[in-house]
Specification:
binds zinc ion, two-stranded antiparallel ribbon, three-stranded antiparallel beta sheet, alpha+beta, 173 residues
Length: 173
Amino acid sequence: MDPTEEALNDPAIRAYLHRIAGDEGLNLLERFPKEGEHSDEDLAATTGINLNSVRHTLYTLYEKRLAEYHRIKNNETGWLTYLWQLRIDHIYDAIREDMSMVLEKLSRREKYEEENDFYICKDCQILFTFPLAMNVDFTCPECKKPLGHFDNEMLLRSLKFRIEAIKKSLGHA
Ligand SMILES: [Zn+2]
């Protein structure tokens, strides 16, 4: 099977492509000619998708290395044409990279949650770290009620759970 078609048939990969490229992106991927390289204008003409949307999708895919181009110059006019082809075979690398970035973000958040002590005004739902709570004398600046300690254990547990799950699927665990 064609790698793009195969990717689009996998619900998880399809969801990922939809998240990065949207409805119009998926639309282009589904209609992208199976063979050869194509200019953005040709793609717009053959798929019926408007040119701006085609370009937007191509750049989005390019950033994830899921599309590549080569450039040809018309020697008479000096005009450049970009010919595109899909590289959906890079999809697993793209997903791994994104997951690594999410993992980094979650790990930073985990560290922040572990290193800080939190206080809350339950009425106003305002959260303070220890130094900020100390600055306001453990009194809510909005309603003047005393702040209570905020237990972030559940949040930390769910962060750890998500971190472990990502590490496992990245093969780090
Ligand atoms: Zn308050």
